Amino acid sequence: MTATPVAAPGVAVRVHARRPAVVIVTLSGLCLLTAFLTLGVGAVRVLEPHAIEALFGHGTADQIRTIRTYELPRVLIAILVGSALAISGGVIQGVTRNPLAAPDIIGVVKGAALGTVFLLWAYPLAAVSYLPVAAFAGGIIAMVIVYLAAYKNGGTTPVRLALVGIAVSALCESIIRYVLLVQANGIGHALVWLTGSLAAIDMNAVYQILPWIAVILPLLVFYAHKLDVLGLGDDMASGLGLSVERTRRIALALAVLLASACVAVAGSLLFIGLIAPHMARRLVGSRHAVLLPTAALLGSLMLLVADAIGRGADPPIELPAGMVTAVIGAPYFVYLLTRSL
Amino acid sequence: MRLSASNLALQYDELVVATDLSIDVPDGQISALIGPNGSGKSTLLRALARLLRPKGGEVVLDGKAISSYTTKEVARRLAILPQVLISPESITVEELVAYGRFPQRRSIGGMRAEDREAINWALEVTATSDLRDRPVDHLSGGQRQRVWIALVLAQGTDLILLDEPTTFLDIAYQLEVLELLKHLHATEGKTIVMVLHDINMACEYSQRLFALRNGKLVAQGDPRDVLSASLIREVFGIDAHILEHPTSGVPMCIPIAAPHSRPAEQAPAVVPVGS
Questions:
Q1: Contacts of B155 in chain A (CB under 8 A)
Q2: pLDDT on residue B157
Q3: Could you give phi then psi for residue B65, rounded to 5 degrees?
Q4: pLDDT grade for A195, boundaries at 50, 70 and 90
Q5: Is the peptide bond before B246 cis (omega within 30 degrees of 0)?
Q6: Which of A67, A230, A326, B198 has CA atoms 20 to 30 A from the CA of A254?
Q7: Residue A158, CA distances (Å) to A81, A95, A232 in order
Q8: Which residues of A touch B157 (CB under 8 A)?
C-alpha cells in the first residue's frame, strides 16, 4: 500500500506481480523438495534416499517406524501450521492495513498461550487434549479485548488496532511469566510448548488441526476479493458497497481461529505469520487471491526449515522450531521496523 | 430530486459538527460545498454517501431513507471519492479501476462483458486508457486523480460525490481534474457534488454553490448570485475583493490580508547584512 512507508516506491525491490503462477508453482516445488529432504533429519538419522523409501514402506522396520510415526507427522504439521499462520497473518495484515500486524502482534498468539498456561495453572493434571480449547478461548478473548478497546466512533482504525494489540500482548506475556514464577510444577512442559516446538507431534496433532484448516481456508478464499476492496480504505470500500465492519469482523475471527488452532498444536511460533505474508507481497503483489496461497507456501517452507534446523543442528538435543523462527524472524522484524520508521 | 438531507445532526464521538443541516442536491448539476476547515462540508458529504450515520434527521436517496438500503444498493446508485485514497501496492491502473465494478459483481465468478465495457469506458473518458498497464504509484498527481475518478465512474452511477478531489494537486492538475468533471457533467449528465477549498475554482466549475459555516448552510445558489464580499466575511471571517473573471465572467474572490491578524513576532528574524 502506498500509505505505508514500507512499500514506498524505490525502497522495495519491485518484483512485478505479473507472474504469480510461476511463483506459486516454484514455491510448491521447493516446499515438496524441502519436505522430503528434511524427512530423515532428527535424533535417529535416516539418510536420504532411505527416508523416502521408508515413507513408502521400504527399508528396515525401525526406519519405517521412525519415519512414519515421528518424522512424517512433524513434516505434515510444519506444512499445515506454517501455512495456517501465514494465511492468518496475511488476512490480519489485510484487515488492519498494517504491514507490521500479525497474529503475534495483535495479541492472538500470546492470548492463546496465556489460555493454555491458565489451564495448566488451574488444573495441573488437565489432559493435553484440553489445551486446544484453552488456546481458542485465550486467543479469541485477547482478540475481542483488542477489538473492543480499539473500537471507537463506530469503527476502528488500523493504527489503533495494532497499538492496542501490542499492549495486550505485552500484558498476556507478563501474566504468563507471573504464573510460571508462582507455579513451580508443570513449568518445563509449559515452557517447551510456549516456545513452539514440534517435538511431541504425532499424527493425532495432524488430525486435530486438519478440520480447522479444511473449513477456514475455503471461507477465506471466498473473502479474498472483499479483503482486496478493504485495502482501498474504509471510506472507499464502504462507498463501493462493502460492509466494512462486518467483513473485518468475520475475516479477523477466521484468522484468529486459524492462529489459535496453530498455537494449540505447536505453541507460540513467532514471526511466521508476520514475515511470510510480507515476503509474499513482495513476490506477487497485494491481491489476496494470490497473496494468501503464496504466503502459505512461504510459511510452510519457513517452518519446515526452522524445524529441520532445530532437530538437526545438535542431535539428540532438540531446539524448538519457535526458537529458530525467532532467531531468523526477529532481525527481519527489526529490519521492517527500521524501514517503516 | 434524487438526493437530499433534512435536519441532519452530525457528530464524531463528542465532536458536534452540525445540529440541524438540510440540503437538496440539484439533479444534473455540479454542486460545490465550500466553507472553512471544520465547517462540516466533508462531514455532510460523508453523511450524504452514508459513510457517516447521522445522530438525527435523515438522508433521502431516490425517495427512500438511505439507511433503509443495503450498502451495496447505495453503491449502485451513488459513488463517492473519499478524501484519503489508498492504492494497493504495485497495482496497475486497470486493476484499480476494476474495483469500481465491485457493487455489480457477485461474490463468486469473474468479470462479465458489461464490467469490461464499463471499465474501458471509464478509462477512455478519463483519458487513462494508455496508462492501463502502468503501476498506479508511478503516475503523476493529476494522472492518479484521473484514475481514481475512473474507478468511481466505472461504478456506473449518475450521482457522484467527491471529497476535495483537487487537494494536494498543483494548479494545472486542479484544472485538469475539474475540466474532466465539467466534461462528464456536460456529456453524461452526471450529478456531481464536490467539496472544494478553492472558492474561485468552485465558482468557475459549479452551477450551485453551498457555503457552510459551523455546520450551518449560510448561502446557496448560482455562484454569480451568491458570491459577495459580505458572504466571504460571514463564512471565512476575512475581507475580500469580488471581481469578475475576465473571460468567463464568474465572480472571483481576492482575499485581503488584514494586517492586524498577523502575529507580531512574524517580523523577519534575519536582517540582511549591509541593509
A1: 240
A2: 95
A3: -60, 135
A4: low
A5: no
A6: A326
A7: 26, 8, 13
A8: none
Q: Which chain A residues have a beta carbon less than 8 Å from that of B71?
A: 238, 241-243
- Mutate which of A11, A93, A240 to disrupt the B interface (most B C-beta within 10 Å)? A240
Contact A281, A213 (CB under 8 A): no
The tens digit of pLDDT for each residue in B98-127 reads 999 999 876 566 788 889 999 999 999 999
Cα–Cα dist A212/B200, whole Å: 60
Chain B hits for A3, CB-CB cut-off 8 Å, are 86
Amino acid at A185: N
What the block records as the C-alpha cell of B246 is 475576465
- Which residues are CB-neighbours of B184 under 8 A, at least 6 positions away? B125, B153, B160, B190, B192
Banded pLDDT at A73 (limits 50, 70, 90) = confident
What secondary structure does DSSP assign to B138-156, as a single string? GS-HHHHHHHHHHHHHHTT
The alpha carbon of A281 is separated from its chain's Cα centroid by a whole number of angstroms, namely 16
Q: Provide the residue count of chain B.
A: 275
Are the beta carbons of A85 and A259 closer than 8 angstroms? yes
The confidence score (pLDDT) of residue A12 equals 37
Sign of CA dihedral A23, A26, A29, A35: negative
pTM (predicted TM-score): 0.82
Q: Of residues A333 and A172, which shows the higher confidence score?
A: A172
Which residues does A160 contact at the CB level (< 8 Å), separation at least 6? Answer: A150, A152
B170 Cβ partners below 8 Å, 6+ apart?
A: B141
Q: Are the beta carbons of B20 and B7 closer than 8 angstroms?
A: yes
Q: Which candidate in B102, B111, B155 is best for mutational testing of the A interface (most A CBs within 10 A)?
A: B102
Give the closest of B12, B75, B103 to A153, CB-based.
B12
Q: Which three cell numbers stand for residue B121?
A: 469506458
Cell, residue A215: 473449513
Cα(B233)–Cα(A31) distance, integer angstroms: 70
Tell me how far apart the alpha carbons of residues B32 and B205 are, in angstroms, rounded to a whole number. 8
Please name the residues in contact with A179: beta carbons below 8 A apart, sequence gap of 6 or more.
A117, A118, A121
> Looking at this predicted complex, what is its ipTM?
0.87
**3-state SS string over chain A?**
CCCCHHHCCCCCCCCCCCCHHHHHHHHHHHHHHHHHHHCCCCCCCCCCCHHHHHHCCCCCHHHHHHHHHHHHHHHHHHHHHHHHHHHHHHHHHHHHCCCCCCCCCCCHHHHHHHHHHHHHHHCCCCCHHHHHHHHHHHHHHHHHHHHHHHCECCECCHHHHHHHHHHHHHHHHHHHHHHHHHCCCCHHHHHHHHCCCCCCCCHHHHHHHHHHHHHHHHHHHHHHHHHHHHCCCHHHHHHCCCCHHHHHHHHHHHHHHHHHHHHHHHCCCCCHHHHHHHHHHHHHCCCHHHHHHHHHHHHHHHHHHHHHHHHHCECCECCCHHHHHHHHHHHHHHHHHHHHC
